[in-house]
Design brief:
The chain is an all-beta fold. The protein is built from no helices and 8 strands.
Length: 104
């Protein structure tokens, strides 16, 4: 049975879990990253296999440059059972992450 899930977190210059590994999968129809200060920034999102830090060989690692944009929307993000969604940003400010999805 699917349960609606709302993700709201901040991306800073320190890698941190946005979702911890759990007994189910998360599917996000969309995740929006906001750059409200319109600062120079790029950020990383990683779906990791339960390691403390994202590494080469992890399931998926995304790098996005959001410089000059107020927001960026990513579609169809799956975080499988036993995996974490981790993120960090290279910016002078803080980016916010909002996602609407389901937990199964």
């Amino acid at each position: 049975m699917s349960t609606p899930f709302l993700l709201r977190k901040a991306l800073t210059d320190t890698e941190s879990p946005l979702l911890i590994a759990s007994g189910g999968s998360y599917y996000f129809k969309s995740i929006t990253v906001s750059n409200s200060l319109n600062s120079t920034a790029h950020f990383y999102l990683a779906v990791t296999a339960g390691r403390a830090f994202a590494e080469i060989g992890d399931f998926i690692v995304y790098r996005y440059d959001i410089t000059g944009y107020n927001f960026l929307t990513l579609n169809d993000i799956l975080v499988p059972d036993g995996h974490e969604l981790r993120g960090w940003a290279v910016t002078s400010g803080v980016l916010s992450v909002v996602g609407s999805g389901v937990f199964e």
